[in-house]
Amino acid sequence: MTLAVGVIGTGMIGQDHIRRLTQVLSGARVVAVTDIDRDRAAAAAPEGAKVFDTPQALVRSDTVEAVVICSWGPAHEEQLLDCIAAGKPVFCEKPLVTSEAAALRVMEAEVAFGHRLVQVGFMRRFDADYRRLKAVIDGGTLGAPLMYHSVHRNASVPEGLYTSDMPLNDTLVHDADISRWLLSDEITGVEVRLPRRSRQGGELRDPHIVLLHMAGGAVVDVEISVNIAYGYDIRGEVSCETGVAALPNRPATVISDMHGIRQAIPADWRERFIEAYDQEFREWIAAAGQGTATGPSTWDGYAATLVADAALRAVSSGNLEVVGMREKPDLYSQQPRLAA
Amino acid sequence: MTLAVGVIGTGMIGQDHIRRLTQVLSGARVVAVTDIDRDRAAAAAPEGAKVFDTPQALVRSDTVEAVVICSWGPAHEEQLLDCIAAGKPVFCEKPLVTSEAAALRVMEAEVAFGHRLVQVGFMRRFDADYRRLKAVIDGGTLGAPLMYHSVHRNASVPEGLYTSDMPLNDTLVHDADISRWLLSDEITGVEVRLPRRSRQGGELRDPHIVLLHMAGGAVVDVEISVNIAYGYDIRGEVSCETGVAALPNRPATVISDMHGIRQAIPADWRERFIEAYDQEFREWIAAAGQGTATGPSTWDGYAATLVADAALRAVSSGNLEVVGMREKPDLYSQQPRLAA
Amino acid sequence: MTLAVGVIGTGMIGQDHIRRLTQVLSGARVVAVTDIDRDRAAAAAPEGAKVFDTPQALVRSDTVEAVVICSWGPAHEEQLLDCIAAGKPVFCEKPLVTSEAAALRVMEAEVAFGHRLVQVGFMRRFDADYRRLKAVIDGGTLGAPLMYHSVHRNASVPEGLYTSDMPLNDTLVHDADISRWLLSDEITGVEVRLPRRSRQGGELRDPHIVLLHMAGGAVVDVEISVNIAYGYDIRGEVSCETGVAALPNRPATVISDMHGIRQAIPADWRERFIEAYDQEFREWIAAAGQGTATGPSTWDGYAATLVADAALRAVSSGNLEVVGMREKPDLYSQQPRLAA
Amino acid sequence: MTLAVGVIGTGMIGQDHIRRLTQVLSGARVVAVTDIDRDRAAAAAPEGAKVFDTPQALVRSDTVEAVVICSWGPAHEEQLLDCIAAGKPVFCEKPLVTSEAAALRVMEAEVAFGHRLVQVGFMRRFDADYRRLKAVIDGGTLGAPLMYHSVHRNASVPEGLYTSDMPLNDTLVHDADISRWLLSDEITGVEVRLPRRSRQGGELRDPHIVLLHMAGGAVVDVEISVNIAYGYDIRGEVSCETGVAALPNRPATVISDMHGIRQAIPADWRERFIEAYDQEFREWIAAAGQGTATGPSTWDGYAATLVADAALRAVSSGNLEVVGMREKPDLYSQQPRLAA
């Protein structure tokens, strides 16, 4: 009755998902874990869960009904293909894969299988603020969306570990995915502009202004600042034909004191999106229990890969770089229907 | 491993709690239900749950580890006493009981039992906005709280069913409980003032201004409007010695259109407090699993009963009506400590 | 063509009004000044203005068309009566007079004169925020106003100089006047509650909660905090039958930094109401140029005196103290009509 | 003592400035008017003002100390050169002139004259919200400004009269000028992107996204929507190294009703900037009274001309168009010092 889940990769994010599946949400239990570090896997395994030596063995085990992939990106392709071969629903953390070719291979396998199995971890789509924003846009009372201003600000990034490609490779992909989802449209081109460099990040290329051109003509302008010190501040505003809709302030206590009338800003993505992560897995459990997936798809992971590639090219070229997506398989055009 | 719960009363709120325990939260399952309407109980029972003929039988059943009471108020006393006699943790919806004498009897039984078993359903204490507000006050950076302005506005109340005592008996109790909790203090007196009557509610006595006098000297002024048409609007602002802290707007999409720049207001308490209900039960499950209770206690239910009684007297007398609470048993002065 | 103004009292506020009439506003010039300190008067006199030895001489001078009274309160009655005797429009700073009897004498003199000459300095009525708020209430779309919550917070008051009667005598009068004006109604009773004392003001009685009962049944609750440290924070919210209207945040820059997302709060009344003072005199000049007055009247100054007296009695008695106003002279029931 | 002003052009904006100088502000009087339509000039002339047949005659008249130019753009150059030749301070409405060559001729004449005489009508610099925003940026506590997001939304523009060049020629110039002023920097390049066209404006090219590249490296992205129906909504947000500063909501009444909790948005530029216009002329009068000018200069008008030209080229080319300004004359590098 409850979904038997196997977790591949028991680092920080893997451990957090194990906690979520075990202690927070109903409907699932973690029955299997594996990690390149066997001790770490053993330590992270909840009571009764079996520690596997390899991802492949875990995926193929009869006790595992669905898989959560939290390994590092380069390992995802093989693990995803294994899951598809085994016909098992799989949640895969970002990035789906690390190259366009790999994304296409996974997509082809899933299409050949015949229905969706893969959900990729774009958690913003499960955030209540974004969902309300999308509902307003989709409601149509403001007319067609023409522009979207997306603001992505990190308080800081790990010095040394976070390189100049990462604002586009790791950070922009969230804005790109949420733009596609909010506007129900695809990205066809990317431009990047580099404002004066912030002294907060030393030699790091920061901030960025990115323009995403959508197939339907809307233009998205993204501000990415990854060392802005004051907090993790995610903003979004859609300008439509007859009105504008925007993400609200986070619901922090309104304090009036010597600093003015004010509300705290989240410190990091954990604080900002913790409920979104819960909801993401709630919906994954529901779909996986029926042998399929409903959230962000392989197609969405493929799109993210192409946009990040184009953004990196755009930094070098200074030009508009085209995002050339293949034709969309039917599989990704409709939401799987779940039984009530 | 998961808590085996029996539910007494399968009306609207009982059904909602069954859904919550079964489909939303981890750690509990509903194994038993009962209702004065046996068919309704049978219809509400999840797969595998047994339908009992009487509350007493349900409480005494060996398969039931903890109880949720959603019956009507006058039945609560007996059911609570049964649970205490059986040594079983129990969640009891508001009102705890319907008289001071009954509250004292339940309290004496629980004190005699020796540790807390009862949690009463004041869900606001589990709301994230209120919790952050309390954290600011308790943090002490704004100095001592001196005044609290609590605003309780209902869009509408059921005509005919909702009588003129109910703004004080059913509605004020939330503001009273949250005042006691936010200010970590007891109410010692109640005054009620009746502004010009709203034509929205016909002959209903509405709105009310209520002053709650706290033992430590703080004064709470409460606005209660139960037919204000525009929405369910819950506000609270604590004035301290060197600053002020208030509940924020709800995190609705910020829309700019012909009506201005605006955010939607919740329609009703379900929309406003749905996450608070989930959290309330999450914490109840954790404590009940260890044989005790941690949230609002029998003492809090007793206080609410006395405040509502005083408020009703204050309407008649026009005077300050004293809330005379008995001495607080040690049992209610400390939080039960849960194992990690 | 421009109004020839004589100013009585050249202390801080008198000097500020001279600056306003001379350098900021069109349509007036200061032709005469007087002060109990002749040197101070001479120093404050703008070029071409004559320094008079006595208020009486200034008022009676043919060169003076209209008078501004900025002397201390106890001197106002005689100066106002002189102005009325001379038939000259007069702007009088708060308080109009310092006793009910004096207020009645001024009122009788003005009524006997036959049209309005006196404007009293309640500058809030000229503040754009309050005016927009009143326009919403008067527009009627929210139904009748039933409650008004008025918040009056001073960062600090001068220690030693500011005594425990002054929150009611000097501060409350603003909330009382604005309540009468916003609700288009009279105050019939006053209650005062004393919350726990703030340690910010030493022995000073602070804060206060004041309830004002309006003739039409609305109830106003006022929070007065005069030592709240963080700023000069003036708030007001009117609860009506089908909606609520409130003063907005002041239009300060929205800053996101380590203190959160925030807006500065005014430091004091000068910063908060500077435009209101300008507008107050702009309208006074327009009316005085036509030999009359249109703003807050002798009647309003009389009401303020009675409310302050009742509030002080209410502190002593702990009871509702009645505000017994005489019948309203016709003179004060209609706005004087100005030529275009 | 009061400044004797001559007004050239008595259309809508000229009439409004006559009203402002005559009825609102102190320190100036209108002594002369002229217009291509002599009857319109005569009708607009305040009492005692002389109607001149030509701008040249007005400028040269001994009774005129300073000039306000409200004629149409192509006439400005000659009138400005006349004022400079006569050594008279002059306020000139936008656009300063209509070509780069004309701007250079006016600049050369003023430089040859030896001190500033010209103020150009960029009124936003006098708006209190923008001034506070600039004070925060200049204060430096947020670090260097790296990006500025400027939003310019008109409810509607006159169909037929407002052509597709005007969003850049007439509207963008405000955002460009305020960007230069806020960031204390010059624009070196302009890019324009055309999102999906709004159906609100028929064939009109709308909206626009414009990128302004500043000499110091900051990038400004401007949203221009001229037919967005819901109001005149002017927004601005500066992203700095360690924080963000933004224009606040306008201080409209906060209404809670069936449309949510909301504040009205200005209907048009008159409502939004009325105080800014007053302040603009207040400061002009002060400087003109001392024979000079302090606000936006000929240099600023020249910059606006170049930016608009570059923006129009950028629409055609799709590329970054360079703004090549001549070297800045010393005259425009320092503010004229006014006597106290």
Please give a structural write-up.
Four copies of one chain form a homotetramer. Chain A has 340 residues and is an alpha/beta fold. Chain A has two domains: 143 residues, NAD(P)-binding Rossmann-like Domain (Rossmann fold); 164 residues, 2-Layer Sandwich (Dihydrodipicolinate Reductase, domain 2). Helices cover 36% and strands 22% of the residues of chain A. The first copy, chain A, has nine helices and 15 strands. Chain A has a seven-stranded mixed sheet, covered by helices on one side. In chain A, strands 3-2-1-4-5-6 form a six-stranded parallel sheet, sandwiched between helices. In chain A, strands 13-14 form a two-stranded antiparallel sheet. In chain A, α1 links the parallel β1 and β2. The longest helix of chain A is centred in the C-terminal third of the chain and has 20 residues. Chain A is globular and about 55 Å long. The two termini of chain A are 15 Å apart. The mean pLDDT of chain A is 96. Chains in contact: A-B, A-C, A-D, B-C, B-D, C-D. Chains A and D meet through β7, β9 and β10 of A and β7, β9 and β10 of D. β13 of chain A pairs antiparallel with β12 of chain B, so a sheet runs across the interface.
